Amino acid sequence: MQIFIQARGFDLSADLRKHVERRIHFALDWADQHVRKVSIRLSDLNGPRGGEDKRCSIQVAVPGAADVLIEDIEPDLYVAIDRAADRAGRTLARQVARQREYRHDSPRDGNTKNAAIAGEAESTSAASPFIHSGK
């Protein structure tokens, strides 16, 4: 899993970088085989004016599925990072569960009732052109 961190409107300190990497690993390490790249964009929307303006945007690139996009805005950047990382982990868990569920219901697996019915229909229709009724 590759992690890319960008900061806009302020300098990215070593401590902040370490915090982001630690939170991302904590939230997403379980899904390392599903995740190709994680991009984190940190920004201070209002600059020195203050207010609820620290934004953390996380984009998780998952091969074969839509990217997970999470954004959180808080007065404290560390809180925004923590909340966004937690939400990214939960959202990715739901997406992976849906993919597994979809794959298990796929007729290619041969594990569902629909696959068995489809297989019977194929064998019946495949055999019928070769049957000679003798008329």
Enumerate the spans where pLDDT stays under 50 for 5 or more consecutive residues: none
Strand order of the largest sheet: 1-2-3-4
SSE arrangement, N to C: EHEEEHH
Q: Quote the distance from N terminus to C terminus.
A: 67 Å
Mean of residue pLDDT values: 80
- Which geometry do the CA atoms define? elongated
Strand content is: 15-25%
Question: Characteristics of this structure?
Answer:
135 residues, alpha+beta, Double Stranded RNA Binding Domain, 3 helices
Report on the architecture of this protein.
This protein is α+β, with helices and mostly antiparallel strands and 135 residues long. The protein has a single domain (2-102), classed as 2-Layer Sandwich (Double Stranded RNA Binding Domain). It is 43% helix and 22% strand. The chain is built from 3 helices and 4 strands; from the N terminus they run βαβββαα. The protein has helices spanning 14-28, 77-104, 113-127; strands at 2-8, 37-44, 54-61, 68-74. Strands 1-2-3-4 form a 4-stranded mixed beta sheet, covered by helices on one side. Helix 1 packs parallel to helix 2 (77-104). The longest helix has 28 residues, at 77-104. The radius of gyration is 24 Å and the shape is elongated. This is Ribosomal subunit interface protein. Residues 98-111 have a biased composition (Basic and acidic residues). It comes from Candidatus Accumulibacter phosphatis. InterPro entries: RHF-like, RHF/RaiA. Residues 95-135 are annotated as: Disordered.
